[in-house]
Each structure stands twice: as C-alpha cells, then as structure tokens.
Amino acid sequence: MNDTIPNLPNIRPELLDMPTIEKLEPVGDMNHPPRILLLYGSLRERSFSRFLTFEAARILEHFGAEVKIFDPMTLPMVGSVPETHPKVVELRALCLWSEGQVWCSPERHGTVTGVMKNQIDWIPLEQGAVRPSQGRTLAVMQVCGGSQSFNVVNTLRLLGRWMRMITIPNQSSVPMAYKEFDDEGRMRPSAYYDRVVDVMEELVKFTLLTRGRSDYLTDRYSERNERALKAIDRQIGKI
User: Fold this and answer.
1) Facing residues of 100 across strands?
2) pLDDT in tens, 10-34
C-alpha cells in the first residue's frame, strides 16, 4: 500500500508530478522554424477568409515561420468517406506536422461556416496513441460581412479548447471585410491589419514558448491514473 499525502487521501502520490522550472526545459529539435498550419472557412472565389489567411501567412513567414495552408475545396463532409480519403489524410498529416495553427472563418448565421467546422471535425482527438491537435498553439480570426462581431472567434476558441489546443489571448475580427481588401485580395492598411500583425506576432511567440514543452504541459494526473488502473486490470485479466 502506498503512503497517502496528508489532507489529500484521494491522490496516488506515485502518479503525482511536482512541477518545477527544470522540468519545463525544452526537449527535441529546436532549430527548425515554427511550423504553422492555416485553415480557412470559405470556398467562394472571392473569399475574404482566404484572403485574410494568406495575409496572415505572409506575416508569419516574415517572422521566420514555415507555413502551410490547407485547401478545403475537395474535402468531403465528415463521415461521408473513409478516413483513408486523400484529403483527409492530407489534413491529418498537416496537423501532426504543425506546432501551431491559425483558424479563420466567415460568420454565417451567427457562427462558423460548415466548411470550417468540417475541417475541424475531421481532426481526431486521438489517432492511435497520437493526439494530432493537443498542445499546439492556436490563433483565431474571423471576417464579417457587416458590423464587427466576435461570434466566430468565440466559437473557434471553444473548439480549440475542446481539441486541447493552447489558444493565444489575442484575436482578429475584421468587419465589412469587402472594404478591407483590394482587387488582388491584399489587405489594405488599417487598424484591423495592425491587429492581424499583433495576432501573428503573438502566435509565433507562444509557439516558440511552448515548443519542446507541450508533451510535459499536457501530461495529466488523471490520464496517468487511468493508464495505471488499466494496467492493473490487464494484470488481473492474466491471472
């Protein structure tokens, strides 16, 4: 029988981690550029969420990040095809590759678009022993057809939390997006553009801060306890 912790009889001491600054030392390869995956939520030819995503990608590249943008055009609806579909495989591989992500969606009926939600729904919480989204940093953005709204970024934050991602504090919401982009799809100078720069700068900082530490940051007592109990059950099953 293991000793218990005074005043904490429900905790198994041998499974409880004591956080220290030394344990937060990064591990692994720190020399490659931050790897950022960008997702956008519209299939329209003149898509402002796509324009904003590409604008963000340019800023990220200036900050030294390696960026990849997923094209959702031919991604089937979740559940309509096997997980071996090439676009599903591509999306999941990009998630595993990434250290941080940017999600950008238009607002439709007060929330994210089906195109945006479909991409997120194809990303599993668990894929064997791997969690493709856990511990990655996340920045959220939205474009609005009318006045400024925060419905989409709030929903994306909720989804990011559900996917066990580290969502940065800053965010971008661009109202009347049709006024903010020129004919070539480049964003015009404005306070909204400056905010996008702020968000990308913060995303790179948080990605650098958490890289090499995400496994430790997401290592949880409850899951260690669950694994230990399953191991006991397996041993009992062999008796």
Assistant:
1) 36, 137
2) 999 999 999 999 999 998 888 899 9
